[in-house]
Amino acid sequence: MAQRDPTDLEGQEQEAQDQQRKAQVRQQQEIADFKWLMDGKQGRRVVWRLLEKAGVFRSSFSTNALQMALGEGNRSYGLYWLNEVMTHCPDKFLLMINESK
Predict the structure, then answer these.
(1) How would you label 22-59 residue by residue, b for 16+ Cβ within 10 Å and e otherwise?
(2) Is residue 36 part of a domain?
């Protein structure tokens, strides 16, 4: 582990900027990967199955609190992926629905 000089404010600022740039590159790569996935018919089928299995399009209500908590956890994860679709490639959503029929 490298020792840092706690009084080197310029070095700390540069390190923070480097970390921010790396995070931006990583985020852009994730978006590009997701768009690539949604560009193909096979990728859209995978995402559709993920959304269905997560229960995005159905209620997670149950009289059993633990069962409902599990359903809501799954649904929350599915909503994350639905948000990714709607944020990065909303035009593919309707295509994905039509292909699923």
Answers:
(1) eeeeeeeeeeeebeebbeeeebbeebbeebeebbbeee
(2) no
Residue 77 inside a domain? The answer is yes
Are 50 and 75 within 8 A, CB to CB?
Answer: no
Domain, as residue range, for 99: 41-101
Could you tell me what percent of the chain has a pLDDT over 90? 83
The domain tally of the chain equals 1
Domain assignment of residue 15, yes or no: no
Inside any domain, residue 55: yes
At 3, the pLDDT band (50, 70, 90 cuts) reads confident
Query: Do residues 71 and 62 touch, judged by C-beta distance below 8 A?
Result: yes
Q: Are 42 and 48 within 8 A, CB to CB?
A: no
Say how many C-beta atoms besides its own lie within 10 A of residue 75's C-beta: 19
For residue 75, which amino acid is it?
Answer: R
